[in-house]
Amino acid sequence: MNLFTIDTGFFKLDGGAMFGVVPKTIWNKSNPADENNLCTWAMRCLLIEDEGRLILVDTGIGNKQDEKFFSHYYLHGDATLDSSLAKLGFHRNDITDVFLTHLHFDHVGGAVVRENEKLLPAFKNAIYWSNPKHWDWAVNPNQREKASFLKDNILPIEESGQLKFVSAEDGVKFNDNINIRFVYGHTDAMMLPLINYKGKQILYMADLLPSTGHIPLPYVMAYDMFPLQTLTEKKVFLNEAVENNYILFLEHDPINECCTLQQTEKGIRLGETFKLSDI
Fold first, then answer.
1. Domain at 2-278: CATH architecture
2. Is the pTM of this model over 0.90?
3. pLDDT single digits (tens) 171-221
4. Are 273 and 212 in contact (CB under 8 A)?
């Protein structure tokens, strides 16, 4: 098995929304905001080469939306999904599986491209993986979350015939080296791959833990549909990570790719930070 970080660039989101009830005087120390109260976040995906498959976990925001849409998110940085793949000697047509943790636009936007006004799967040779519970949640969204579930990102996947579902059952195997864990606080039935790699366990955190700045339990995003559920899930997973020496892969942290955790007098806090390639 080989693991590769796939950088797809940076975007900006409101700092208050990203840290919920935590005061700006506290979170601004770890994630400083600009003059518009916006903080920079990564859109970091993971490429897994295993058992003859090339599995891409999440796809970033993509580039098919209009100028008005992108004006809200201030995309920046030189990296793109295609350029990151090319640096590793891969092309999007080499991808065999696209594993979508959930269907918010900054995770699934790159899964679909616009070609001659047609919306088509960006990975024409890949199977796209979701689960029926989350898929139904996304295609029939509530009013609060509706703006995060863009039909242009979702429906073309189903229409292509390339969509498959895994069971929405915690701990289900994706393959021999990847188990799927489910969480329900950020959005219904978000999937977190837990990967066996070089004798270690790597947990892809998606939006359960966006960055190292979110490690303290009360640091829960205002974007989460069920924040008290997130609080409960964070406590379970962070304790599990400490007990089992998990490495956490961080999708949105603007600086840190991976980290470990440690138990302290103040609770669970950041341990070491490092790049995926250092493992």
1. 4-Layer Sandwich (3.60)
2. yes
3. 899 999 999 999 999 999 999 999 999 999 999 999 999 999 999 999 999
4. yes
Longest dimension (CA), the chain: 58
Copy the structure tokens of residue 7: 């950088």
- Residue 252, amino acid: H
Instruction: Please state the domain extents for the chain.
Output: 2-278
What does pLDDT average to over the chain?
Answer: 97
pLDDT value for 168: 84
pLDDT, tens digit (0-9, with 9 covering 90-100), for 238-277: 999 999 999 999 999 999 999 999 999 999 999 999 999 9
Can you read off the two tokens belonging to residue 171?
């701990």
CB 94 within 8 A of CB 124: no
DSSP output for 34-55:
-TTSEEEEEEEEEEEEETTEEE
Q: Which residues contact 28 (CB under 8 A, 6 or more apart)?
A: 15
Please list the residues that pair with 197 across neighbouring strands: 200
Amino acid at 235: K
Q: Find all residues with CB under 8 Å of 57, minimum gap 6, and list them.
A: 45, 46, 47, 48, 99, 101, 193, 204
H runs (alpha helix) in the chain: 15-19, 24-27, 67-71, 81-87, 105-108, 132-139, 151-160, 227-244
104 vs 96: CA distance, rounded Å: 22
Where b means 16+ CB within 10 Å and e means fewer, 141-173 reads beeebeebbbeebbebbeebebbeebebeeeee
The Cα 91–Cα 86 span in angstroms is 6
* CA 235 to the chain's CA centroid: 19
Contacts of 221 (CB under 8 A, 6+ apart): 17, 18, 19, 20, 186, 207, 210, 214, 227, 230
